[in-house]
Amino acid sequence: MNFKKDFPIFDNNPGLIYLDSTATSQKPSFVIDGIKEYLENDYANIHRGSYSLSERSEEMYKKSKEITAKFIWSTDYREIIYTYNANYALNLLSASLKRSQLLKKGDKVLISVVEHHSNIVPWLILKEEIGIEIDYVNIDENFWIDFEDFEKKFTADVKLVSFTAVSNVTGEIFNLEKLGTLIKKKNKDILFVVDASQSVPHIPLDVKKVQCDFTFFTGHKLMADTGIGIIWWKKEILNTMKPAFSWWGAISKVLKDCFYDAPLPDRFEAGTPNLSWAVSLLKAFEYIEKIGGYETLITHEQELIEYTLKKFESIPWVKLIWWKNKESKVGVFSFIIEGIHSIDISEYLATKNICIRAGQHCAEPFLTSLGLAHTCRMSLYIYNTMEDIDIFFEELKNAIITLQ
Ligand SMILES: Cc1ncc(COP(=O)(O)O)c(C=O)c1O
C-alpha cells in the first residue's frame, strides 16, 4: 500500500525522497488537522477551569495518555508523564532518582555501548554530581547484547540497567525480555530503564513482558509533533519518588515555609503541560491504529528492508554496518564508502532532493568502538516506497562515481 498520499509534505515538495525518519518522522494530515481542530475548537488550560472548554481540553489530554499507555501495554494512564523529548525525559528521571536517593555514591549504572548520547549523558552528570559508576556492556558478533559480557559486568553494586530497545545506528532490535528476566531474577529492586525512542515508532514494546520499571521515548519520531516526550513509570516506584523539579503545577499546596507535592501523575509535570503536542501524540497513535496498527507498520517496513538489503548487496563497494539479522531489524541502514567522507555523500544526495543523515548519530562511543568516525545513515518509515529506494540507489551510485 502507498501511504505517502497521507503526508502533505510530499505534495508540497515534489520529488522529495525522505530517508531520515530515524532523526524525525514526517506528519500525516490526520495529525496536522487534529492539532488544528483541537486549537480551533477545544483549547483551554487544564487542571484549573470548571467550564466546558477546559473540561474538553482536559479530556483530550487524558485520552492522549490513555492511548499512549495502551500502546505500551500499561493499564493505567497515570503511569504516563509527559515531557518535551527523550533527552528531557531521561534527565527528569535521573535527577528524580538522585533526589529520591534511589541512586547514591558508588552505585553502578549499566548501559550498552550502542546507546544514544541521551542515555549516556544524564548518567555522566550523576557520576559527576554524586559519584555513581557507569559501565558499558558490549555487543556480540550479531550486533546484539553480549549476554556473557553482561553477566560479567552485572555485579552486586549494579543498581540500575538502562538499555535502548533498538539501535539508532544499526536498527538492531535488542532482546529486552531476556535482559529483563536476568535482571529481575537476580534482584527485583534493580531498576530497569528502556530507551524506546527507536522502537515504539516501529515495533511493539510491552512494558510488562520486558519487566522494565521505566521507559522513555519521543513523539516526533512516531509522527507526532516535536515537543512531546514520554516517560512511563511503574506505579509502585512512581509513588515512592520525588520529582526533580517542583514548580507550580507539580505542587498541591504551598505554605510560607513548605510545600506539598501534587498527586500522581501531575507531581512530575510542573507548570502548564504541552497541550497541543499531547493532542498530536494522540492523533499519531490514532493514525497508526487507523492504518492497521503495528501489523501494517511491520509488514510494510519488512518489505522495504528486504528490498533495500538486496540493493545494498548489488553494490559491493558500499560497506553496510551490519545487515545480517533482517528479521530483528527496523529500517535503519548505516554504511560507509571507502575513500569518500559520509558528509560528502549526504551533501551530494541533498542536491538530488534525497535526505539522509551523515555523522556519528549521537552515538559517538559506539562508532568509536567500531573504529569509525562517521557513517551515512538512510532510514525508512511508513511513507517510503520501493521507488524511493530505487532513486536513492541510482543517485548513490552517481555520488560514488562523481566523488571518487
Ligand atoms: C535511541 C534514541 N534515544 C533518544 C533519542 C533522543 O530523542 P530526542 O532528540 O527527541 O530527545 C534519539 C534521537 O535520535 C534516539 O535515536
Overview of this structure, please?
With 404 residues, the chain is α/β, with parallel strands linked by helices. The protein has helices spanning 8-12, 29-41, 52-71, 86-99, 121-130, 147-153, 176-186, 207-210, 235-238, 275-290, 293-313, 342-351, 364-369, 386-403, and strands spanning 17-18, 80-83, 108-112, 133-137, 158-164, 191-195, 214-218, 229-233, 251-254, 259-261, 318-320, 332-337, 354-355, 357-359, 375-379. It has a seven-stranded mixed sheet, sandwiched between helices. It has a four-stranded antiparallel sheet with strand order 11-12-15-14, covered by helices on one side. Strand 6, helix 8 and strand 7 (214-218) form a beta-alpha-beta unit. It starts with 7 loop residues before the first helix and ends with a helix. The mean pLDDT is 94.
Structure characteristics:
7-stranded mixed sheet, Aspartate Aminotransferase, domain 2, binds pyridoxal-5'-phosphate, 15 strands, 39% helix, alpha/beta, Aspartate Aminotransferase, domain 1, 404 residues, 16% strand, 4-stranded antiparallel sheet
What is the CATH class designation of the largest domain?
Alpha Beta
Helical content (DSSP H or I, runs of 4+): 25-40%
Please compute the radius of gyration using only Cα atoms: 22 Å
In CATH, the architecture of the largest domain is 3-Layer(aba) Sandwich
Overall structural class, as computed from helix and strand content, comes to alpha/beta
Beta-strand content bin: 15-25%
Order of helices and strands: HEHHEHEHEHEHEHEEHEEHHEEHEEHEH
Low-confidence stretches: none
Shape: globular
CATH third-tier fold name of the largest domain:
Aspartate Aminotransferase, domain 2
Overall number of strands: 15
Question: How many domains in all?
Answer: 2
Task: Give the number of helices.
Answer: 14
Strand order of the largest sheet: 2-8-7-6-5-3-4
What is the CATH H-level superfamily of the largest domain? Type I PLP-dependent aspartate aminotransferase-like (Major domain)
Nearest-integer average pLDDT: 94
